[in-house]
Amino acid sequence: MKTPPRLDKGFLKAKNIIESSEDIKVYSHRDCDGITAGAIISTLLERLGKEHEIEFINLNQVENIKIENELTIFTDMGSGQRIEEITTSNSKIIILDHHPPLPRKNLKGELLELNPINHGIDGSTQISGGGMAYLLSKKFNQYDTSWMGVLSAIGDLQNSLTGKLTGLNNQILKDSTRLGQIEIIEDLSIYGRQTRPIFVALSYFSDVNLPITNNKTESILLLKKLGIPYKEGERYRCLCDLTMEEKRKLFSELVKMLSREVPPKYVKYIPQLVSAEAYDLTSEEKYTPLRDLAEFSTAINACSRNNDIELALRILKGERGAALDELESVSRTHRKYLAEKVELIETEELLKQKKNLQYFKTTEIKDNVIGTIAGMIIGYGDWRKPTIGLGIREHGTKVSLRCSRLLALDGIHFGSIIRKIAEKVGGSGGGHAMACGAYIPPGTENKFLELLDNSLKGKIG
User: What is the DSSP string of 305-332?
Assistant: First the structure.
């Protein structure tokens, strides 16, 4: 896919605006896509010798911004916020976003909003916020940040349904492979290719409850049955160590196992569930969390969720050595926190069942990991239902939904559904088919769950 002509002209206009500006402030979202998008623009501005400051914020903080700089750039945010409320007659703003845009009223100053949705391109599957930032950098002949455009898309789960990058994401991927930055590998769709022992990685397979799900012993027995060694001397083998023949054996066995467990209507989707493209960053060492872009995106998110975005930015801009030691410490803290909260949900039996969904309510899990936890416990409940996490706070409730990829492959777009339900209780929401969320007013949780449960009647199972 090529960049549409009107959008291409928009990038050229943004280039001219940046070239004529000296005092620049960048605001970006606090997730992997937003942090990477911010890193791309910050790298560009540094190379241009432009004085700038970058700040990473939550979406609900946009309305509190006071525009004071000559040029303000929003990356991975801005389209879904009422930017016109913070504009002034002197403000000059560029928005690089891929989320659904709001109509603009009473706009003051100059606003250039670049959004793929305005050009008929799906912003949830075909380009990310970081991808938009890269396409702008490309106008300055900066191609070497293309790998970050790919990382943004992976971090934003844009390959989660098809198992590969499509649309403008694929164009960015080609830029990166031409430079030799990224190697595309046809692989099994199992997380932890570079860092997890293969039997551990298999035990985390939770889209459908299998004997191996959350069971390392069963995972080892499966590998032994297939004649696939899980150790090489004293070292545990990872997925990236397996030969193509071993991967084919494992693929066939997983397809058989899944076919026995799922309703007939899902069987046709099973190969997509088991295999996918993987993306290795060739400059990074094997067996490190930065080699595989899926694991890299997790590392960036771990920095964000532990309020160390500065570390993420340093790593994205090329720092290694001590930065990697810090990253390991942050990631270890993050993993420990997640494990403790999953155990909390298990031991206190917080996961409750409704007819068409399962949910947990808590005041003890941080808002920015509710979605991660919801995804992790799919395998502990009924995989046929979406899992809803509700983080209860005095000022309102953060809702996160995760589901098996099979539900999304079958055509259910939970992002659209959750947005409509959230609006009915006075909140707002949206997101991807299989990963989405909302903010709802305090006290509306039961009504929200009831409406969502009813809306899924006849769609689940």
Answer: HTT-HHHHHHHHTT--THHHHHHHHHHH
